[in-house]
């Protein structure tokens, strides 16, 4: 399912290829997030234009609305959203943690009130697997418990044990039900927890690897911790994960963070940030982010960035600024497209640099220019 | 500039071709409205996919924001909005009438407070021409006064005289300044007023034709009058307009109204309705409009309409309904695209029917099915 094609001689960066039910994914890869069955503001044709190889769907959101039975009965998520390349779904656990109210975690699962109408609901490892099986994603994530940052070591230990117990129940469900993704089989990734403690990260990784999944994610990152802790979480987990399985850092990160993580051996990334900040007028450029609404761009004839895709580069900063001020939806589309292009190009360039054996040079040169912040 | 290619034997419908600075327009034609330099929610690539031959820009909006000097300095509206096919701009008069506050009409022009920041401004025939020249549209509309419905005959008479005096001033400005549109010349259309009075419509049409413009619009329609009065306004104007000049019914209408007007000899239409109602969940179908948010479509696997363009037809009603309920922008895009496709296909089918000499049959068959309202 996963093959390492090249390794960078001077760091842990690696280039790989994943074969999934709906196609091939070249790694390292950035995965656009389609929370509710749509990558916000974009049409699937544009995702193809961007060269998106795999997108995300959020189990929690799709379970609540329109409901996984509706999607299953309409032929599963690929057909529903008219997207025929791979899809990864998360477990729903993180959204229960970040969006739902009155959460109560027990060994059985998590009780909560949903954020839409306040209904009382319960999500369990088995139900998360069942929902994701109904969605028919290529990769389903195991149901885990994500401890907050900061948290007591005691809490982190208990949470980690719970995550391992839930992982076993997920595994049992998978073996019994053999979920499919289109014409192929659904793959399943375990999630390494353990907060900031190296020994807990190791323990979590070893326990999950013992259960043998198709890939492993580093969870519990991007929850408010300093960047240093984020990098350590990766460094403390990666050595205990098998070389021949893909590694996924969930919900990350800025362009420099993604490059740093690739250098530490991570293969997959997803983040809502590129599309979310786009809707507030922030665009990524090789010289760092810019805010398109600034007066400075009123008569700026240049495209957003010299790296812009032609779909966006045909418009001046002045025009996109005007669209933003005028409240035109095209503004949100153009910056969302641009920012995703920036992230997808970043991982594509990283792949190439790894193949050519000069990843560190590429990384340092990118970060140097990006953080000089010449633009603003 | 305009050539009649075919006439329907049983009514006033005609097929024609207009040569403008930025290309050819086949008539009868529907023109999508790009109020603020963007046809709401759509990218120019999609307008091309729709086969849009000409779009509108609103002088009032673009004058206020970003300002016509900004657009002029950035290379005029075609370049600013990255649209290289023809553009028609209105005079700004109608928006002053419908959006601005504290209007005061004098012989000189209209004083008002704008709807964005309440600034006091004045629009005159000369300024409207100057703004449209800065925008560089292919067709500029003369600055007119649009009487409300209903209005006193006395008011309509005075208003009509003012419109004629303003038309002369516009003509003077045009002759003196010779405005351009890209590599070609800008064309100018007069606007027939006269409210509901046949003799006033005739007077207005004759006075404008004496001044000799490139085309003529029927103005003062779609201002709250019954459909019968709308049709009469056309019937009372068309006989006094030259056969060899295009005729434009401003701001209209429903699909049956457009067909009725084509049958009365109108060549050009524009309306914000297809995109505006799309943003509220209404989609046009051959069986009449449907509201996609209705529960009836929760599991409906069919596309919006059997006539849907592939760009939209790949999605089920169930999916689009889900996107609307979830607040996803893609929903607005898909219905806007669909509705414009419906209107553009309507005028394309009308052109074909006229060429084949069976327009009346086409019109009656379309309206019969459309008004049976089987869908809801």
Q: Describe it for me?
A:
The structure is a homodimer of 376-residue chains. With 376 residues, chain A is of the alpha/beta class. Chain A has helices spanning 44-49, 59-64, 68-73, 76-81, 93-98, 125-135, 153-177, 198-211, 227-237, 255-263, 273-278, 310-313, 317-325, 329-355, 359-372; strands at residues 2-7, 14-20, 23-27, 29-31, 55-57, 87-89, 101-105, 110-113, 120-123, 139-141, 180-181, 184-185, 187-192, 215-218, 247-249, 268-270, 282-283, 290-291. In chain A, the strands form five sheets. In chain A, strands 4-16-15-14-13-10-6-5 form an eight-stranded parallel β-sheet. In chain A, strands 1-2-3 form a three-stranded antiparallel β-sheet. Chain A has a three-stranded antiparallel β-sheet with strand order 7-8-9. Chain A is 43% helix and 18% strand. Chain A contains 15 helices and 18 strands. Chain A folds into two domains: 2-271, Alpha-Beta Barrel (TIM Barrel); 281-375, no CATH class. The interface between A and B is large, with 38 and 38 residues. Chains A, B: GO terms for molecular function: tRNA-guanosine(34) queuine transglycosylase activity. Chains A, B: Belongs to the queuine tRNA-ribosyltransferase family. Chains A, B: Its EC number is 2.4.2.29.
